[in-house]
Amino acid sequence: FVVRNSNVSHNLAYRGGVFSKNGDSDIKFELVDSLVSANVAVYNGGVANVFSAPGSMTFKRSTIIGNKASVGGVVYAYDYSSGASGDVHIQSEDSLFEHNSAASSTYQDWDIHGGVHYLYGTGAKSYSSGDRFDNNSARDEGGVCYCQTYASLNVSGSTFRANSAESGGVL
Questions:
Q1: Which of 15, 117, 158, 166 has the fewest CB neighbours in a 10 Å radius?
Q2: Is the pLDDT of residue 85 over 60?
Q3: DSSP 1
Q4: Torsions phi, psi of 86, nearest 5?
C-alpha cells in the first residue's frame, strides 16, 4: 500500500506502530511526501515490523520523527531466509529521520538496538540516498542502524549528525 501526502502519528502497537507483516506473502509499503511522527511499538519497529516477509518498504521525501521501539525505532526487518525470494528491501530517498529511538520498555530491557533500523539476516537490506539522520539514538548499539547476521546497509549522499548509542553512534 502507498501512503502519500499524509500525517501518520501517535499510533501504538506491540509490534509495528504503523505497519506489521509476518509470513511468506510479499509486501509493498511506501511512504511518500508524508510526516510520520510519535508512533510507538512496545517491542519491534516503531513504524514498521517485518518478520520474514519478502518485499519492500520505501520512504521518499518524508519526515520520520520521534518514533520509538525497544528494537528498531523506525523499522525492524528480520529475515532468516537464504535466498533472494525472501529478501526485504528498505529504501529511503531524500527523507529526514530525526529523534527516533530504541529505548527500553516495560516488556524489554535488554538488547536495545537500532535507533532507526534494526536489520537481521542475509535478506535484510537497506539503501539510503540523500537522507538526513539527526539526533537518533539507541541505548545499546547502533544509534542509526544495527546490522546483524549478514544484513546490509548501503548509503549514498546522506548526512549523519548527533546520533548516539553506547556502541556505534551510527552503526
A1: 166
A2: no
A3: -
A4: -105, 0
Whether residue 42 contacts residue 73, with contact meaning beta carbons closer than 8 Å, is answered with no
Residue 124, burial from CB neighbour count under 10 angstroms (0-12, 13-18, 19+): buried
Residues 54, 86: contact at Cβ < 8 Å? yes
Here the cell at position 56 is: 519492500
Q: Please, which residues have CB within 8 angstroms of residue 163's CB and are 6 or more apart in sequence?
A: 115, 133, 134, 135, 136, 137, 143, 144, 169, 170
**Reported pTM:** 0.92
Q: Is residue 84 classed as helix, strand or coil in its secondary structure?
A: helix
What is the band of 2 on the pLDDT scale with cuts at 50, 70, 90? very high
Q: What is the pLDDT of residues 133-147, one digit of tens each?
A: 999 999 999 999 999
